[in-house]
Amino acid sequence: MQVAIIDEGRAIDLGGCRFHAIWLRDNAADAETRDPGNGQRLIALRDIPEGTVVSEARLDDAALHLRFEPEGKTVTYDTGWLMAHAYDRVDTRGPGWTGEGIETWDAGLMTRIPNAAFDDVARDRAALAGWLGGLARFGFGKLTGGPVEEGALLKVAALFGYVRETNYGRLFEVRTEVNPTNLAYTGLGLQAHTDNPYRDPVPTVQILYCLENSAEGGENMVVDGFACAERLREENPRGFDLLSRYCARFEYAGSGGVCLRSRRPMIELAPDGEMIGIRFNNRSAAAITDVPYADMEAYYAAYRRLGEIIDDPAMEVSFKLSPGECFVVNNTRVLHARKGYSGTGSRWLQGCYADMDGVRSTHAALVQELGLAAE
To answer: Where does the TauD/TfdA-like domain lie (predicted)?
Structure first.
């Protein structure tokens, strides 16, 4: 590998990858720039002189030594770190690409669901890391053999993060009620949906934990919303564009003192086109008013087709929970549903919300702690 100063010191070329001087100086890891203990920056960009350039560049094994002017400061970089963070590339990704470590799926996931025993992940940090890695990759995971007791799902949330309390409480009951405030509390079948699309931000993890399940029917289903959006994009690029470009509206006012509203696309993309979220919930959809007249008919056709793809049995993984079992979904990606169930027997689940940042943080920390290979 060779290094050369280019553009009058405003950049370097390291083995064919270019890096700007200002980027390199901003990402210096010396003790004056970053705290050695927590890694946080000790300076702001305003503390780096405008017009910063590289005046000297020298390679020594896996280390790159750069001198910056006008500071007269020499900084050493690990070349492996630099190449892992290289940004000098041609981006050929189109709208709707998914991030590294994300694997989309259909009904074929049935044979490889991220599944673990509660006692194993509670006691064995390597087992927990493996299960969380699967949850991050697929947006879905199951646990079996948990305690059959009220509030047990809070122990699941504590494995990786914290409960997100909402107007439904710290946890909520999912069983038949008289005069329910939400259709989830009936025996009706529910179309696959993401929860709380009317909330901004939405809870990004949902846990549903089974305490009783002797009723006929009531199987749970999960569907990868990212895979459904990818299928729509392949069939109908314009429809994908409409659902990602225009905002839908969602609302909930089913209980006293609560009036929740949001305005977000059904398919949410980052500015660079990365697919980062799905919001789909027919029960909570409000009137769509942000689509121009000229596009509304095509928008509704795309909306209908997305729903048909979501309803396609080829996209779903279905299962029936037993007491002490639970499933966890990334609520910004994976839709969940249930089939209708009879009035005989009993079906009692408890649910709660948490967040994916806890899943990702705990997984990354365990990978580092245990020296595991990154997923």
So the answer is: 116-353
> In one letter, which amino acid is 203?
P
Measured between its terminal Cα atoms, the distance across the chain in Å is 28
Q: What is the pLDDT of residues 110-133, one digit of tens each?
A: 989 999 999 999 999 999 999 999
**Which ranges in the chain are annotated with CATH 3.60.130.10?**
107-370
Q: At what angle are helices 356-370 and 125-138 packed, to 10 degrees?
A: 130
pLDDT at 185: 53
* pTM: predicted TM-score of the whole model, two decimal places: 0.90
List the single range of 68-77, 150-159, 201-210, 255-264 with lowest mean pLDDT: 255-264
Topology (CATH level 3) of domain 3-84? NE0471 N-terminal domain-like (3.30.2020)
Element spanning 213, H or E? strand 205-213
Backbone angles phi, psi at 80, to 5 degrees: -60, -40
Q: Which residues contact 338 (CB under 8 A, 6 or more apart)?
A: 189, 190, 218, 219, 220, 221
Output phi, psi for 109, to 5 deg.
Answer: -65, -15
Residue 16 has which token pair?
């064919």
Structure tokens belonging to residue 193: 């949906």
Nearest to residue 321, comparing CAs of 356, 354, 346, 353?
A: 346
43, two tokens: 């300076």
Q: Tell me the DSSP string of 317-337.
A: EEE---TT-EEEEETTTEEEE
Tokens for 266, please give them: 């059904």
d(C-alpha 277, C-alpha 291), whole Å: 19
Fold (topology level) of 107-370: Double-stranded beta-helix (3.60.130)
R_g of the chain, CA atoms, integer Å: 25
What residues contact residue 363 under an 8 Å CB cut-off, 6+ apart? 129, 132, 133, 135, 136, 160, 375
CB neighbour list of residue 265: distance below 8 Å, 6 or more residues apart: 243, 244, 245, 246, 247, 248, 279
Per cent of the chain over pLDDT 70 is 95
Q: CA 118 to CA 147: how far, in whole Å?
A: 9
Size of the chain, expressed as the number of residues it contains: 375
For residue 274, which of 51, 152, 94, 106 has the smallest C-alpha distance?
94
Assess whether pLDDT exceeds 80 at residue 187: no
CB atoms within 10 A of CB 359: 24
pLDDT at 229 > cutoff 80: yes
